Amino acid sequence: MLTLYYSPGACSMASHIALEETGAAYTPQPVLIPKGEHQSPEYLKNVNPRGKVPALKTDDGVLTENVAILTYLARTFPEAKLLPTDPLGLARCLSHMAYLSNALHPTFARIVRAERIAQDPAAQEAVKASARESFWGLLQEVDGIIDGNQWVMGSQYTACDPYSLVFYGWGGRIGLPVKELQNYTALKDRMVQRPAVRKVLEREQSPLLQG
Questions:
Q1: What's residue 118's pLDDT?
Q2: Parts of the chain with a pLDDT under 50
Q3: Residue ranges of domains in the chain
């Protein structure tokens, strides 16, 4: 039995949706970041010593990091078609997921965790402002990637779609005008119609369900 450790609204939503898309039996285990549960001694010892979500407990051990978990799910449940099977298509999906993990996620972190970079309050505000501008530019880039496509990578729904949805939601959370991103917004609207996506968004009480 698989167990997914997630926190509502966190980047773990990507793995949460992908796991639901597979149709596999699993236990969703919330780890509430606002309450510090990801830093509890039990979680650090038994699940993820890095104190982060997502984490996927399998019969063979625990996997961490979205890119790894999404790839594992795609390979373990190929009937879900979460990644292309051709080498170039697969590489492009992995490239996009790495881009989300390496560029968008740390940029957003500078907005909401500026104190990790600067101690002076004025410097923190400068960090937030710069990161906010950069994050908006990155969202616009994703919007351009989607342009003309049904899904992020083209006609096939892949793990790139729930992972990209995370950052659209985060943009709205901090008040960016994400609805101006027509392609990204249309992607969000299509995703919300998918039963697996809607089930996870309802479980996580996501604002994305509010339009």
A1: 86
A2: none
A3: 2-80, 87-194
Instruction: Give the DSSP per-residue string, the chain.
Output: -EEEEE-TTSTTHHHHHHHHHHT--EEEEE--GGGTGGGSHHHHHHT-TT--S-EEEETTEEEESHHHHHHHHHHH-GGG--S-SSHHHHHHHHHHHHHIIIIIHHHHHHHH-GGGT-SSHHHHHHHHHHHHHHHHHHHHHHHHHHTT-SBTTBSS--THHHHHHHHHHHHHHTT--GGG-HHHHHHHHHHHTSHHHHHHHHHTT-GGGG-
Q: Considering only the top CATH level, what class is 87-194?
A: mainly alpha
Q: What is the CATH number of domain 2-80?
A: 3.40.30.10
